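User:
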Amino acid sequence: MGIPTRTGARLAALATMLLALASPFAAAATLRIGMSDDPDTLDPAVSGSFISLQITSVMCDKLIETDPQLTPIPGLATAWHWSADDLALTLSLRTGAAFQNGEPFDAAAVKWNLDRYRSSPMSKRASQLKPIKDVTALDDHTVRIDLSEPYAPLITMLADRSGMMLAPLATMAAGESAGAHPVCLGPYEFVRRVPQERVVLRRAEHYWDPSKLRLDEVQFVDIPDATLRLTNLQAGQLDLIERVAPTDLDTLRGDPHLKLAATPALGYQLIIFNLAHGPQSDSPIGRDPRVREAFEASIDRDTINQVVFAGQYIPDNQPESVGGPYFDPDHPVPHRDLARAKALLEAAGQGRVGFTLLISNDPVSAQVGQVIQSMAAEAGFDVTLQMTESVSLSQAADRGAFQAAMQIWSGRTDPDQNISIWVACDGFLNRGRYCSPPLDKILGAATRTTDTALRAGLYRQAAAIYLEDRPVLFLQHYAWLWGANAKLRGFAPTPDGLIRVKGMSLAP
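Assistant: Predicted structure:
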């Protein structure tokens, strides 16, 4: 049976690599995880891909962790409290912890990391931490974060990349190359990376809680083809695979040596448009919101879900799940309307509109692109699909070398980090350079209160703006579908899609 891969050479390379994984090097205490992509960088300050977050979450503990229900729990900060005016957050830090190279973990290290995240020219966390005015080490194990204004998402930020602690001396010595060999404070430390093949981690010698480490090694293996991931899971060459193709679920369920783990996801898929980022923004789809509206009217989210995802996902037009507290019911998921699409193009003075859609070159993304291409053609759009590696796609989008690009976001518990990142003027994933000062004002107000009802009202006001301007089109929310060796113990899928390796083991 033919298995689709990137190229014949890529398949040969994967076969060679997987034979190596089946060798004595892959001992019983080695967890081998099949991933859908290669990480961009392993420096939490710079990275923007979910695969990078997945790997760095195993290497780098955060100041605040989350439990399987995504409730904040102690991490490297054992306790925290807000000041009465919500302008200062004080953290009590864990004692007896050290970085993977032996550097001490203390308040000075926390201050250095937070200052790096919010001020380094390379940092993609700077806009997320903009409300931080100062970070002060009160003593060796107490840190105070002072804010210029109340900032509700801060706890969520410290439970994300911005809360990951890197060893200051090692990171300063590495400079811009810190992501090539990151040194964190976490359960498994970096060993090596073979680009487009794997990242290898080993049990950290200095970890503060060794009782939770039941694996000697963790390998993240890059296999973009979902069916190929499943094939290697069945062959025993992998122990856990992410993003099982919905069309492969019956095969997985029918194998007594495997098990399925599934949960609704915070993550979603979307298309971003280049509105003002370099020469490629000068196109009808970038210049005119009526053309983007016509494009949305030409596609059918339900059809995409049924054809590509076997009905397992949730069609959506917003970054929050349908029916959730921050979803705007006044703007429900629109149905396909070809007549309206054609009328909008005519009103915009356009005949047929051509543009290039940049997509990742995994088979599932290709299928989504092909379905969209076919539907949009009926309305008057000539969509050229440009397939590329996910890292190359992100790099192209960062420099404005795109007209439209398909993206994935793993989702966050705080609504600000599901929308501001894409549409705020300084959003770190606002690659199309959309900017609406009235929208920024509303989004800013929503971060300054913790009142759910008030925030929901503000995010609905925001939705009325970005759904009209359409700098992005949300397509669907995912379900996390994992395949696992039946011998794997301790794995529990969570809505954020992260693998919590601590406590996991492989039975003999």
